[in-house]
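Morning - NDP inputs below, output right after.
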Amino acid sequence: MTNNSEYKAWRVTEQDGQYIGAEETCRIADLPEGEVLIKVSHSSLNYKDALSASGNKGVTRNFPHTPGIDAAGEVVESGGTPAVGSKVIVTGYDLGMNTAGGFGEYIRVPAGWCVEMPAGWDAATAMVYGTAGLTAGLCVEKLLQMGAAPAQGKVAVSGASGAVGSVAVEILAKLGFEVVAISGKSAHADALKALGASEVVGRDALEPGKKPMLKPVFANAVDTVGGAPLAELLKQIMPGGSVAACGLVAGPQLETTVLPFILRGVNLLGVDSVEIPLEAKKSVWQKLSGDWACAKAEKAARTIGRSELDAALRAFLKGESAGKIVLDHSH
Ligand code: NDP
């Protein structure tokens, strides 16, 4: 591998205000500085990749750019740890935002971004989870740290058919929780039940309303959508319950009153999977590759090649994406 070696990447270019994604031939020399060069075999698709690919400047400032906030593969050059030949996962930090990401066959990143592949996993399996699975795991971990337990009552998962939501449903069901999946895709109800949801309700369960509080029906919740649905969800949480909030597909604004917090002691728990210490990521990767393994999500995941990225990323922006999509560079 020399600086002049070439590789393929799905790059996004700005042309007259339009953002066009296409496969390009790149050179290793053009990758950013970093201690570790990784041959990426697999990446995974996330909502943030769709934002980057559509020119969202809050995610990616400069184009042309290679998106892909997730990558898994083999270290081919390193200053030390991780060693050459080791298999690693890289998620979050600046990968795929303003650092060339996993939609290219190679990435170069700081050593401190790399997590060693958990025993028993290959790159394809790791990317069934990717940032979405990691985030679902972090949400569940936060609820458990707050003392959430199946005996307390139902746990709601909003955006349930999405990449984060579907993994959250399966982990919670595995842990014995009675999971209510909140989903806008009625055609996806059977798939959500197969993941372990005991009930599937429509998004109208979180339809914005004027009442300051509602009947408390959920002991706890994982919210992946934010916006007005999150405000409605907070009104329906039982006393002392918690909502782990990680997403904003329904909007970044949260207009609520303090009533759920001061009348019912509800906890709103923010979840970040991007900038947290590597150790915190490692702990969830270990759980996902062990007791929290989601066999059903792994089986249901769809694998695509670079030529299918454009359509798949557009589906995210329309809220039409379901489950996990893995990018296989050899596909
Ligand atoms: P997906 O697009 O896969 O899933 C989001 C789901 O939300 C959709 O499938 C849909 O599910 C539902 N949805 C979509 N649009 C709306 C809407 N307008 N109103 C209500 N529900 C809607 O995305 P991900 O699961 O990958 O990500 C979910 C969110 O989490 C995103 O905002 C993402 O940016 C965020 N995220 C945050 C991370 C962090 O570190 N905090 C890390 C990873 C993701 P359904 O049809 O079933 O209702």
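Note: DSSP finds nine helices and 15 strands in the chain.

O.
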